[in-house]
Every structure is written in C-alpha cells, then in structure tokens.
Design a protein that fits this description.
The complex is a heterodimer of chains A (274) and B (265). Chain A contains ten helices and nine strands. With 274 residues, chain A is of the alpha/beta class. In chain A, α8 packs parallel to α9. Chain B is α/β, with parallel strands linked by helices. Classes of the chains: A alpha/beta (274), B alpha/beta (265).
Chain lengths: 274, 265
C-alpha cells in the first residue's frame, strides 16, 4: 500500500479567511410535532413540551455563554400557541426561521402554500419576516420553493447532496444540512448512541471539515426523546461548542448571515469547487 | 499467513430512490444519492488513489450513463468495472425473458462506456432469480458477488453457473449495514474491524463493500480514511488487496475454491 496522504480537497473561501464556518441550528420541534400526528401533548406525548419548559432556555443560556448566534427553525404552531420563548429567542439576537406549521412530514398537496404562508405570518410577528426554511421531514414538493420565493425567502436548508452551500439557477441559496454526521436525532433515536459517542462523531466531522470544505452545519433538538434538550445530551453539545470555539479562525454564523454572505458574490456559488 | 482482501464499491447514486419515484420529484432526504454525483464518487476515487488501493466498482448501467467520465477514471486508476444490473430492478421478480434482456442491456452499456466486457455481477437489490446465474454464464461472466452464505469463494455449478465462482459478501463488512442503522462512525468501524479480523482468520478471504453516498456510505471526508484503516488491518493479517476479476481467474486456474456443498440444496 502506498502513502498515507489525505485526498486532495479544495479550499472554499470563507469570510475573513476562516478555516471553517459553523452554523448552529436549533430545530425547536415543540408540541407541534405531536399535534401534527393528532396526539395530545400529555403523558408520553409531552416530549415536545420539554423544549418549551426546559430545552429552549437551556440552549439560550448555552449560546449566550459561548457568545454564539444561532438559527432557530420554528414550527408555526408552537410559536402561535406558546409565543414567550420565541420572543426570548428573537430578543437574544438569534435568527428565527421556518420549519413547517405542525412539522408536517407528509405530502401536503395543494394545501402546502397556504401552510407555508400561515407559518410565515406567525413567525414574522416576532421581529422580522423569516428568510430561511428547513423542511421538517427533509422532503419538499414542486410547490415549496416557488412559494418560499414569493414570500421573500433567500435560502433552503434541506438538501443533503453537498458539503458546501450552492446557488440554484434562479438565485436561491441552498445551505445543505448534515443529517448524517451533525444531527443529534438520527444517532440517538435510531442509532442508540450515548452522548459521548455523539459528541465524538460531531468532533470527527468538524475536524474533517476544518481547512477543507469548512462548512459545519450542526442541528440539535431541544426536545426530550431523540433530541438534545435533556442535561447529558445538552452537555455534549456544550462541550462540542467549546471545542469549536477553541479552534483558531472558526467563524460562527447564522444561516441568514451565511446566505447573505454567499449572495453578495452569488455567481461564485454556482459551482464553488471549480 | 496469505490472504486476499477484495475492496468493492457499489456505485449507488439516486438510482435506488429513482427506481420507485420520478427523479425530478426527489428532494432532500430522498435525494442523498445526488451526493455521489456531486462529490462522493470522486472523493472515493481520490482516496483509493491516495491510499494506493485497487477496487472493483459494481456499476448499475443507469449510474454509469450519468457519470461516463468517472467510469473512465475508474479504468485509468486501475480499478475493475463490473455489472450491478440496469436500474435497481429486483431480479427475483423478473420474468426470464425480461431478466435476460435487462442483464444483456446493462452488459452492453458497460461495454460501450468502458470498452471492456464486464466479467462480474452483483445483484442491484441483492436478490436473484433461479435464472440469474445461468443468464450471466451464457454471457461469459466468470463470477458473481451477491451471496452471504460462505466465508470464502466457491463454484457456482449448483446454481447453473458452470465455470463461475461466487465471491461471497459479508453484511458486517458492508458500510451501509451500519450507517443505515445510524450508528456513529466509531461504532461502525468497531463492528467492521471485529468481523474483518475474525473472517480473515478462517480462510484468508474477506470482501469489503463501500458506497460513495454520504448517508449509507463512506463518501464523507470524515469517513473515507476508514477504507485505508480496514485495508491496513487486513494487511497486518497477511491479506493483500485484489481485483475481483483477477482473483476469480486465479481460483479458476488453481481450482482451489472450497467445495462446501450449498447447505440449502
């Protein structure tokens, strides 16, 4: 066998020559998830309620300690019925972005534009109208992006086919999310991992991105169950943020800031690798 | 101890999903396969080149038609191209005529794109009919690599494949088995290492299977070094990497494939 050299990867140009850009995204996923499944949020179906009672504020404290601004992907239903924590998110300077009305994980057919608009109106009331969207199920339809464009959105964070942002033909930004290696839910819920194992996986992914593609899109859920709202798992996220913060020339950005950065030189992101 | 390590790559892009849904309707979680086209497969090829490892690439014809330049690159880099069916059809469900024409069509596509007739086959969804092996045999195929029923190669005579060898695969040595269960990378590696060591100790044979996708495979930057670490572990046990086609020919010449009867027959 030959040398132990790393495969060649091209450098992507980030603001201030950063070695990596980190987008921390919080998928609030409160009782909206259960409501979308026609479950009342009582008893064992109160996992989403944990985000409202504990999880969101735990993350607001954590982000404040690290001096990091994050993007909170919010379901319209949660913000409509329990607005207080969403006011706190906005007041702390974080980005509020859209994540479905009741975390719809099914094909909505012709109702989809109406629900996207409803959530948009609800979230706009907390400060500024959202400009970003992440599919609650990881799916979308032919109607999704045309509706989002009409509502003034500039980015979608639902695709999984690249390790860096890219521009669609019509000028819409795709900020791919990383449900494979930087999302708590699959590893806890399906993979049965411990918090220490998930933290290690996050670190490996961060280290692999550093000085190479340099785009780190972290997703955590402040709910109970498969999320990282509960203490041991929140502590793993806390340690990961400390690790990233301690690395030189790492830039934390909200998704909106990143999308605006990319759009300031849009043509470059049609094919940033060439 | 001597031994052989087969490194194989199943070139899955969006084909598995596109087999049941129009490709234009696949987004987000249904479109992980596009990672293969944008970056995953090129990365796997870069990694194999950097590590100096030869591999056998099982190409579905529909993926090869999307990526002709990477078919070329596979050959230029010294890898082998084998058939992985046409477009993720379930071979167990095909009528005999239909299956013969489909295998023939895939065969011609790969011959046209690569300039070489494939000599090996792996079932695209893992399933075969009673006719699959005889159809391949009639086309001059020398090996199949789809079965899970042995620790080392054996003749396919009992399945109508006179002159053909089975190069069995191992689920535990397949990346997708573990990543589909969403285990962490460290856990997947541990599961693969323990199986690799124990399997090589039996007959000195092991077949690793990788996918260039980011979700079920090793296309991500953080996962690629796993290929080299597993190859080194095999090397420590005396197993050297080989191409499937060449290895099958050596077995044909030496007549050394094990003679274990198929327990199912």
């Amino acid at each position: 066998m030959a040398s132990h050299t790393k495969p060649p990867d091209q450098r992507i140009e980030w603001p201030d020559q950063a070695r990596a850009v980190v987008c921390v995204t919080i998928h609030v996923d409160g009782p909206a998830v259960e409501a979308g499944r026609s479950q009342n949020a009582l008893g064992i179906h109160s996992r989403g309620n944990y985000a409202l009672r504990r999880g969101i504020r735990r993350y607001l404290d954590m982000l404040d300690r690290h001096g990091v601004k994050a993007t909170f992907f919010c379901c319209g239903y949660d913000a409509e019925h329990w607005p207080e924590p969403f006011h706190e998110i906005h007041q702390a300077g974080h980005e509020i972005a859209a994540h479905g009305y009741q975390h719809e994980g099914f094909d909505l057919g012709e109702r989809e534009p109406e629900l996207l608009e409803k959530t948009h109106r609800i979230l706009a009331a907390f400060g500024s109208p959202p400009v970003g969207w992440c599919s609650p199920s990881g799916r979308k339809s032919r109607l999704t992006l045309p509706t989002l464009r009409r509502l003034g959105y500039i980015y979608d964070a639902s695709e999984k086919d690249e390790d860096i942002p890219y521009l669609l033909e019509d000028g819409f930004m795709i900020l791919p999310n990383n449900t494979v290696s930087l999302d708590d839910f699959p590893m806890y819920f399906t993979g049965g991992a411990s918090a220490a194992e998930v933290e290690r996986n996050f670190v490996q992914e961060f280290d692999a991105a550093l000085d190479r593609d340099g785009y780190v899109h972290l997703t955590v859920h402040p709910r109970a169950g498969g999320g990282s709202g509960t203490p041991a798992r929140a502590a793993a996220v806390d340690r990961f943020l400390a690790y990233a913060k301690a690395t030189s020339r790492v830039r934390f950005m909200t998704c909106r800031e990143l999308a605006e950065y990319c759009l300031s030189d849009a043509a470059r992101w049609r094919d940033a690798r060439s | 101890m001597n031994g052989t390590l087969l490194i194989t790559v199943n070139v899955h892009g969006i084909g598995p999903e596109a087999a049941s849904m129009p490709e234009a309707e696949l987004f987000g979680r249904d479109a992980h396969g596009r990672y293969t086209y944008r970056i995953g497969l090129a990365r796997v090829l870069d990694a194999l080149r950097a590590y100096g490892l030869p591999a056998t690439f099982f190409w579905p014809a529909m993926e090869a038609e999307k990526l002709p330049r990477l078919v070329d690159r596979c050959l230029r880099d010294g890898h082998e191209i084998a058939s992985h069916g046409r477009a993720f059809e379930d071979h167990a469900q095909l009528a005999p005529d239909e299956e013969a024409s489909l295998i023939g069509e895939a065969h011609e596509v790969l011959r046209r794109l690569s300039g070489v007739a494939p000599r090996g086959f792996r079932a695209p969804t893992g399933t075969l009919s009673q006719n699959t092996i005889p159809i391949l045999q009639a086309l001059g195929y020398r090996y199949d690599s789809s079965f899970l029923d042995d620790d080392s190669p054996y003749p396919l005579t009992a399945h109508g494949g006179d002159g053909m060898i089975e190069l069995p695969i191992s689920e535990a040595l397949t990346d997708a088995t573990h990543f589909r269960r969403r285990v962490t990378q460290d856990r997947a590696e541990e599961l693969m290492r323990e199986e690799l060591s124990a399997l090589l100790a039996v007959d000195g044979y092991a077949c690793l299977t990788f996918h260039p996708r980011a979700d079920i495979g090793v296309g991500r930057a953080a996962r690629l070094p796993l290929i080299e670490r597993l190859a080194r572990l095999a090397e420590e046990q005396g197993a050297r990497p080989a191409l499937c086609g060449r290895f099958a020919e050596q077995i044909h010449i030496a007549g050394t494939a094990n003679t274990i009867e198929n327990a199912g027959d």
